[in-house]
Amino acid sequence: MKTFCGRANPTTGGLDWVEESEEYDYHQEIARSCYADMLHDRDRNEKYYQGIRAAVSRVKARGERVVVLDIGTGTGLLSMMAVTAGADFCYGIEVFKPMAKAAASIVQKNGFSDKIKVINKHSTEVTVGPVNLYVHKHEGCEAVPHRATIYAQVVESEHLWSWAQIRPVQVDDRTLHPPAAMKQCAGTPSVCDIQLSQVPPSAFTPIGPLCTMFSVDFSRMVSSAPCSYSCKFTVQAGGRAQVVLSWWDLDMDPSGSIVCSMAPKWTYSEPREYPWRDHWMQSVYFLPTERNVCEGEKLSLTVFHDDYSLWYNLDERSTRPCCTCQTHLVWTRPRFGELNDWQRTDSYLSALRSVLRPDSVCLSVSDGSLLPIFAHMLGAKKVFSLENSGMTKQVIEQFLEANSIKNGVRLLAIRAEQLTAADLEEERISVLIGEPYFSTSLLPWHSLFFWYCRTALARLLRPGAIILPSSATLYLLAVEFQDLWRIRAPCGTCEGFDVSPMDEMVQQSLDFRESREAEPHHLWEYPCRALTKPHPVMTFDFQQCVPAQPISSQGTLPLTGSGRCHGFALWMEYNLTEDITVSMGLTKPVGEEGECVWSPHRKQGVYFLQTPSESSGDGRTSMQYNLTFEPNTGDIKMDFSVIQP
């Protein structure tokens, strides 16, 4: 049976639906799964084991036979814990066929086939006899975890608020203001889940204390009706209430003596005790509007939820937030932050000032970019902008109208290859600009769509036309991850159980066709140390058209930092002019101890080594790379290896 898989296509800037075998979809799901992350989460596993032991003991104390239903059994780990704790029988429910097969193999390998039955169905489709212990509802049953409790704290944070609203931009003696509709828009109730531990306490000011919002008792039936809960508090520090930081704890037993907490690292008195995990993270919610508050003021934080969303407000109005300005539907949270980055904006403005002339005819190629507006405000004769999306076109139209420059930029809902001289009012392009940014881009090199557009527009360029950026350089860096390595590392044994069949399944999927690829990650959330110097491996010259032949780059780099090389980080740097460069990766030089500071706006590419390699830092161990850019697909094939002395 065939299946359709969506893939970013840098040659078209779109998402292609490619027909693949059924096995391809499975292998991609397995290769990118978080099973290893959960199994490496020692705190989670220990707390589950303690909770399961306690629950089994309570049922036995009642003189009952212990029958367990493990919903979403995964590897079967919790089922094996339950049987080891004394359960009489366990049903492990797993809807994902490859995982159910692996679970059955793991159960057999550990000698539990007579006590555990793995069922490959959705939990809502399963009918079993009486059970009295649920792992992960039924009145009278024990549940592990027993309860979840949601916590929230209102804070002021210019850093985080920049992910929700666009700030005014100073362009010489003029100011570009965001439309009133955007400033008044409540946004969307979608959660922004991040590694909150990487947002330092210096980046926000608490407005009030940490509030306990509500709890969910998993041993009871849960209503699907919309609900709200409020918590009154006194303002501790005056300022602007903008953002709600939220996380939750799991009580594994009714008494709350066994707790698995999702609190961020900076809440721990001893940071070394913080249990890192990527499968359960913290959340950031944005209040519908920022509100000025005074110290000592009495406030009430209310959380609302329905079947699909959860949102916060400082009043008791339960209206579900809805984006009315389109912006929050078009731009992601990191994109808001990118557009609000004044240092980045200043780089683009400086570059534009250096190339624009009073007779410049400027064409912008990016999704929902402010660059064409800047070009008009800086005095270009005519400015055009290609907008592939009708929604991004409407967003830019709002900016133009709000700043009384409606006719300053002509927005063209047309693809580069379809553009004609008539669309440009019989002008020829003297300055082609782009950030470049495209909403379909996942990996750093997907933004090379700008290069393909430049190639399609060659016939409409003036001789000697300026291309901004003039080129892009792909960089790579060998790194040791502090924690991210866990999501791809084999587990072997977990809490004394052999889970190697899962390791083998994941490895088979990683070895499957095209599964050994770089994957996108926001590396600002995942600390790492550099083991080499940043190295430029490939340059793309936008002054020229996309070549017909592949571009290859091979080389060897010494590992000059000591540590364990888990893989490689890759990112793009755009050369706007000869002396102005914007990095989508490292934003500062690598520190003396290999510390890395990453751009929070774009995802970097990460290529994990199948087997990490140790480096003494003396340069004797080296990294070998082989990269090939394929013009026909816009993709980059890569292979890395570590050469030991």
From TrEMBL:
It catalyses: L-arginyl-[protein] + S-adenosyl-L-methionine = N(omega)-methyl-L-arginyl-[protein] + S-adenosyl-L-homocysteine + H(+). One of its GO terms (biological process) is cell differentiation. Keywords: Chromatin regulator, Cytoplasm, Differentiation, Methyltransferase, Nucleus, Repeat, S-adenosyl-L-methionine, Transcription, Transcription regulation, Transferase. Its EC number is 2.1.1.321. GO terms for molecular function: histone H4R3 methyltransferase activity; protein-arginine omega-N monomethyltransferase activity. It holds the Pfam family PrmA. It is found in: Cytoplasm, Cytosol; Nucleus. It is an enzyme of class 2 (transferase). It comes from the Eukaryota. The keyword Repeat applies. GO terms for cellular component: cytosol; nucleus. Its main location: cytoplasm. Residues 146-315, 471-640 form the Protein arginine N-methyltransferase domain. PANTHER family: PROTEIN ARGININE N-METHYLTRANSFERASE, PROTEIN ARGININE N-METHYLTRANSFERASE 7. Arginine methyltransferase that can both catalyze the formation of omega-N monomethylarginine (MMA) and symmetrical dimethylarginine (sDMA), with a preference for the formation of MMA. Specifically mediates the symmetrical dimethylation of arginine residues in the small nuclear ribonucleoproteins Sm D1 (SNRPD1) and Sm D3 (SNRPD3); such methylation being required for the assembly and biogenesis of snRNP core particles. Specifically mediates the symmetric dimethylation of histone H4 'Arg-3' to form H4R3me2s. This is Protein arginine N-methyltransferase. It comes from Astyanax mexicanus. The lineage of its organism: Eukaryota, Metazoa, Chordata, Craniata, Vertebrata.
